[in-house]
Amino acid sequence: MRLRRTTTLAASLLAITLTATACGGGDDDDSGNGGGGGGDEIVIGIKFDQPGLGLLTPDGDHVGFDVDVATYIAGELGYEPDQIVFQEAPSPERENLLSRGDVDMIVATYSISEEREESVDFAGPYLLAHQDLLVRADYEVPNEEAINDMTLCSVSGSTSAANVQRDIAPDARLQQNNTYSQCLTGLENGTIDALTTDDSILAGYAAQPEHQGKFRLAGLELSDEYYGVGLPKDSENLDAVNEAITAMVEEGAWDEAVAEHFGPAGYEPEAAPEIGTRPEA
Amino acid sequence: MFDFLDLDRYDLFGAFWTTVQLTVFSAIGSLILGTVLAAMRVSPVPIMRAFGTVYVHIFRNTPLTLIIVACSQLLAYTLGMSMGAEFATDTMSFRLAVLGFVLYTATFVCEALRSGINTVPVGQAEAARALGLGFTQVLTLIVLPQAFRAVVAPLANVLIALTKNTTVAAAIGVPEAALLMSDMVEQEAQLLPIAMLFGFGFIVLTLPTGLLLGRLSKRVAVKR
């Protein structure tokens, strides 16, 4: 009796494993053949919670600059907008999503860095952002030395937070929170002087309808962040994506997207960076 | 594989030391508040019983993240309370986090203790009252000492849970292990080995706690 039960158990386990692997194989067929288009769908990793760049609206639409770039690239690769599946790519997960093949590419404020290039490939960059401060509209714009006396807020473990502590203003009081929205409470109430991260992200918050007119960007260029399109290591799509970005800039779709998503905040990013630009070490 | 372990750049031991400090201060605080709450819940005064019950039910059933974030958003950012530290410094978030952990963990200490109080035979309290001891004396001299000896093991569980819960403090920027972990993952782009390293760190902290207190609980338990 005991023996039979064990056998049944083993058999059902085996069955489950086989089904699971079969599913995995099916997924690969769906998403792995981006190359010249014609696949069923393309999975793109994107932010769901970043106004201006990648935001999931309550009615299920994806809106933002990164979304437009992703849609354009997918279009150049031969995918119609309804063949694109947007998947959330939280920052710590990005490398794993790519190396496991869960997504075909990531367009999610993904700064190119040496460490990351060891595990993923970057196409682009498609945007040059700078770390900046977001202050209340009536706040006097500080110069770089004055930042040391300020109370800043950023997201726990972000590149911007590390930059502040290591290089920009080691003496500044830095409050780290889980999300940027948590910093906005303190900024509105005056207990925090400035929210710091990439200007493209800050512009997204300043441009939100509920925040318009309350905050503005200080316009300090505290760092260079080159946003790239993350691709799996040795992806065959690298050149195609680079060409797509070039085409988007040349056709003017890039400028349109910038004007649409960053315009309301009065933020104008620099001209599109040249393909293959890398941050100086 | 472990070349991300650049100890000059990442203060690994400092971060875990903050985790230990968070745990110890919160444990002391919640032991005190939890004992007071347990005394309230068994006291003969209805209003105190009611307060204890309402407090435990509210704080035990609120997600810890919510309590910690409320400490920072509500107390600090909106009401300007900084717990005697300079505003928006690591010290401020540390103290706010300890406050949050104490408010939350005290409910579990209270409930563990209350179960311990139930293991003390009613005759003990009746005998003490017959000798002319008041409620406070019955509780502190007769009932609580026996109750504590009965709940060492459950309290060890609460302590271990608290140790791991301290990672929530990263949400308001206390520079402890979980914050360093997200920092390292962001910079080094290697989630798995880094997560494994920190997981191991927590095992090093909690495993001895469990083993030691497990042995202690066997030794001090009142044999009935």
Write the layout of secondary structure elements.
The complex is a heterodimer of chains A (281) and B (224).
Chain A: H1 2-31, E1 42-46, E2 49-50, E3 54-56, E4 62-63, H2 65-76, E5 84-88, H3 94-100, E6 105-106, H4 114-117, E7 120-129, E8 131-136, E9 151-155, H5 159-168, E10 173-177, H6 180-189, E11 194-198, H7 199-206, E12 215-217, E13 225-232, H8 238-251, H9 253-262
Parallel strand pairs in A: 1-5, 1-6, 9-10, 9-11
Antiparallel strand pairs in A: 2-3, 3-4, 7-13, 8-11, 8-12
Helix pairs in contact in A: 2-8
Chain B: H1 12-42, H2 46-60, H3 64-78, H4 90-119, H5 122-130, H6 135-150, H7 152-165, H8 177-188, H9 191-220
Helix pairs in contact in B: 1-2, 1-4, 1-8, 2-4, 3-4, 4-6, 4-7, 5-6, 7-9, 8-9
Q: What is the succession of H and E elements of chain B?
A: HHHHHHHHH
Ranges of chain B with pLDDT <50 over ≥5 residues?
none
Biggest interface pair, residues each? Answer: A-B, 33 and 30 residues
Q: Going across the major beta sheet of chain A, what is the strand order?
A: 10-9-11-8-12
Quickly give the structural class of chain A: alpha/beta
- Structural class of the secondary structure composition of chain B? mainly alpha
Q: Please state the oligomeric state of the protein chains shown.
A: heterodimer
**What is the 3D shape of chain A?**
globular
Tell me what the structure shows.
The complex is a heterodimer of chains A (281) and B (224). Chain A is globular. In chain A, helix 2 crosses helix 8 (238-251). Chain A has a five-stranded mixed beta sheet, with helices on both faces. A three-stranded parallel beta sheet of chain A has the order 5-1-6, with helices on both faces. In chain A, strands 2-3-4 form a three-stranded antiparallel beta sheet. Chain A has nine helices and 13 strands. Chain A has 281 residues and is α/β, with parallel strands linked by helices. Chain A is 37% helix and 22% strand. Chain B is mainly alpha-helical and 224 residues long. Chain B is 77% helix and 0% strand. Chain B has helices at residues 12-42, 46-60, 64-78, 90-119, 122-130, 135-150, 152-165, 177-188, 191-220. In chain B, helix 1 (12-42) packs across helix 4 and helix 2 crosses helix 4. Chain B is globular and about 70 Å long. Chain B starts with 11 loop residues before the first helix and ends with a helix. Chain A binds chain B through residues 91-96, 113, 115-116, 118-120, 151-153, 156-159, 161-162, 173-178, 182, 185-186, 189, 191-192, and chain B through 69, 72-73, 76-78, 80, 86-89, 93, 170-173, 179-192.
